[in-house]
Amino acid sequence: MSKKELKIQNIVASTFLAHDMPLIKLAETLSNTEYNPEQFPGLVMRIKEPKTSALIFSSGKVVCTGAKSMTKVRESVSQIIKNIGKIGIKIKIRPIIKIQNMVASGDINMALNLNKLAMKLDNTEYEPEQFPGLVYKLAGTRATFLLFSNGKIVCTGTTSETRLKEALDKLIKVLKHVEKK
Fold it and tell me: Is 53 helix (H, G, I), strand (E, B) or coil?
């Protein structure tokens, strides 16, 4: 299998802008925002390009979702800083961006017997009457895989492309080992 078949669908990243955020003023000034403090303490900012959403907290903490690459995450944070600048707030630091989670999907090009995997592997959840996929928490990693009988997979829990590839390689070894039994 070529690893290129695992495609990042979403990156959740966080950063800190080292500046208190006047969320009410942002919500009143910017059209691309939603703020309902009674329901949630953060302001939602929607960014058109790259198509992402950010939660901005009064402390200056920002959580960004929706980007499919680190380049897009950085572009999104730049856009957030630009938007905040519209109400006169200058961010003087270069924010450090930390990946919290990556979601990737792909195809491992092998048919999977999910009943057999559920029996042979630890850390699985499989309820075929409720959902056609098997959930597998890969030991020794933060990765959790959703496996389907046709070989399609979804991976969540990794924090870098390197860790994602390592988890995928480890998953394939585990699956091949179980198939031999």
Answer: strand
